[in-house]
Design brief:
single chain, binds molybdenum atom, 5-stranded antiparallel sheet, alpha+beta, binds the ligand Nc1nc2c(c(=O)[nH]1)N[C@H]1C(S)=C(S)[C@@H](COP(=O)(O)O)O[C@H]1N2, elongated, 5-stranded mixed sheet
């Protein structure tokens, strides 16, 4: 037997009131998800057009993506609570049209729950699912958007009827409904407050539940994958073993001492991980533009950057033209005034403005100019 809820608030008015906030959160989450996807895996037409400004663009958009995704947990639960009795109404379909409408709700509810669950698993780096996260999360987002539009169209008359505040006295449940919405708002506020500090510094003190606490960091920046996890050992980066090789029209190789002797520049740039944490730091090193000029790279060329790491998805990175000549794009040797630690990518790592953390390649060994 399914539990029977006897409360009076399982009605279209409550569903509309929660739906407003739910819809807004889904919209922000969807749009910032598109930004995230576009910056991480741009299609060929988009890659050369990706902008390196604002430097905090990806940081803000990905922070919003993860924060709205987390806020969806209480909002979805609240909405499901409000419509719960209708989900199991009997008979399941009264007409072919009604059957279709219920089918679209089944798709909507299941993709919404799946998207939030996958996102949460991913930010906690618990890859419990047997497929790669990003393409599935991206494809399901379109299924969710499509079924949500269908749902909004089917419910448009009810939404219109209940969108506005009822005239005073006409709605006997108004007070109870307001308490429910306040409670839900408090739940959203609470989950946001204890997680958003991972990217929004003023809330840092409250960061209880975020998987990456930026205060638990070395050199002021959390470490996402350690050198040991990536299989990079001290012998591989020893002074006599490591060279930076630049392949291009006039290719060359440099030792770390030679790199240090080139003009050094400092940029304050954030690392913003897709998982929602971010941290700003002072990065010092050689401008990628200077290294490319020295290799005779034509203006507007993209590059491929290869890490010492033996395998793994982030061993090889391609950087589109919009970033390669940017004065803030560095092959960094120092972090917050000290030499890079091995975990942060010693001897040299990439740091570029407005790019996802996954492409801030550590332990760089090779830079190839692309045609
Ligand atoms: N070679 C290599 N570079 C890498 C990674 C990696 O796994 N291998 N992880 C990336 C990810 S996902 C992030 S968020 C940043 C984090 O940099 P940090 O560990 O110095 O904070 O490094 C990026 N650079
Ligand atoms: Mo990351």
């Amino acid at each position: 037997m399914l539990p029977r809820f006897r409360g009076r608030l399982h009605d279209p008015r409550t569903a509309t009131a929660i739906g407003r906030w739910l819809g807004a959160a889904v919209l922000v989450c969807f749009l910032t998800g598109l930004v995230s996807h576009g910056l991480q895996r741009p299609p060929d037409w988009l890659a050369p057009r990706l902008p390196a400004r604002p430097v905090w663009g990806y940081r803000v958009s990905q922070g919003l993506h993860v924060a709205t995704g987390i806020a969806l947990v209480p909002l979805l639960l609240g909405k499901l609570w409000a419509v719960y009795p209708r989900l199991f109404a009997w008979p399941p379909a009264r007409s072919p049209w009604h059957a279709l409408e219920r089918l679209s709700i089944a798709v909507l509810v299941s993709t919404a729950l799946l998207e939030v669950a996958l996102g949460l698993l991913n930010i906690f780096q618990w890859y419990a699912f047997p497929f790669s996260f990003r393409p599935v999360h991206y494809a399901l987002a379109w299924v969710l958007a499509g079924s949500l539009l269908l749902h909004l169209a089917a419910k448009a008359p009810l939404i219109v009827e209940h969108w506005r505040r009822a005239p005073a006295g006409a709605d006997p449940d108004a007070r109870e409904r307001r308490s429910l919405l306040l409670g839900l708002g408090a739940a959203v506020g609470a989950v946001t407050a204890v997680t958003a500090g991972q990217t929004f510094a003023p809330l840092r003190q409250l960061t209880l539940l975020a998987p990456r606490d930026p205060d638990h960091s070395r050199q002021g920046v959390p470490v996402n994958r350690t050198a040991a996890e990536a299989g990079v050992g001290p012998a591989m980066v020893a002074a006599d073993a490591w060279r930076l090789r630049v392949a291009g029209p006039r290719g060359y190789a440099l030792t770390l001492a030679e790199l240090r002797a080139l003009p050094q520049h400092t940029a304050r740039l954030p690392i913003a991980c897709v998982e929602g944490w971010s941290a700003s730091a002072d990065w010092t090193g050689v401008r990628l533009a200077d290294l490319l000029d020295r290799a005779g790279a034509p203006a507007g060329s993209a590059v491929r950057v290869v890490s010492l790491q033996a395998h793994g998805g982030y061993r090889v990175m391609e950087m589109p033209a919009g970033y390669t000549r940017d004065p803030l794009t560095l092959l960094a040797l120092r972090l917050n005034g000290a030499e890079l630690s091995l975990d942060h990518g010693f001897p040299a790592r990439i740091i570029a403005p407005n790019r996802p953390g996954v492409w801030q390649t550590k332990w760089v060994s090779r830079i190839e100019v692309l045609a």
